[in-house]
Amino acid sequence: ILPRVDFLWYKYVYMEEMVGDVPKCRAVFERWMKWMPDDGAWLSYARFEGRCHEADRAEAVMRRYVNAYPSARSFLKFAKWAEHEAKNVHLARTVFESALVELEPEESRQARVFKQFASFEERQGEYERARVIYKHAIKLLRLGEKAELQKMQDEEEITEQERIKREELYKSYVAFEKKHGDREGIEDVILTKQRAEYSKRVKDDPLDYDGWFEYAKLEEEHGDQATVRDIYERAVANVPPAQEKQYWKRYIYLWIYYAVYEEMQNNDLDR
Fold first, then answer.
1. What is the reported pTM?
2. Residue 52 has what DSSP assignment?
3. Interval 239-265: pLDDT, tens
């Protein structure tokens, strides 16, 4: 039982360091690490090496730590240590990148990984790097698209806490663009939100032809040809019930707008 009591190990290494016996203190830490203690123990070991001005040894300890506990939590602690304690920006960036590449999807796709990585780049003044990270997260996690987020939550069994974290990540991105973005960046944020709202609106009510009109017009102004056609095709696929005459007028206009778009914008008379 006693080897598992961290309090005793902390007292032991503290005593050896106070008397100035660095090799003995290091040996005690090594014995302690064999019992696979918690995060605090590994950080204490790395900080001890830092106080001894052994930067390489300290980094090696943290690398052993993330190898022993390969998780988002350990990689983020390593990155934080590298930035704030080791003052090694390059190492911190490498650790963040490794977290996205080396960890299992359920760990690497956590919102806090992207948020802390983007915040790190923002602190370094690397705004374009931060923007790339945010946009990658938005695309990967479908942030801002409530309907898609709910679908992913059902498919991946996302916890309520992770759902909240993803919403916070998206809010951080919006705040980032308002602070550092240009007009195009801010418009992109607004468009993402509008697309999500229209997508949810027509999904909830496929016969909401006004919603389909507005959605198609938005994409005509800001989207590409394939996206516009996809929206029109999805819209006209929702044929009104025969007895519901009030829908037919809007439905026919939808076909007319679709035809006008193909003729005027794409010069595709056959289509």
1. 0.73
2. T
3. 888 776 777 888 888 888 888 888 877
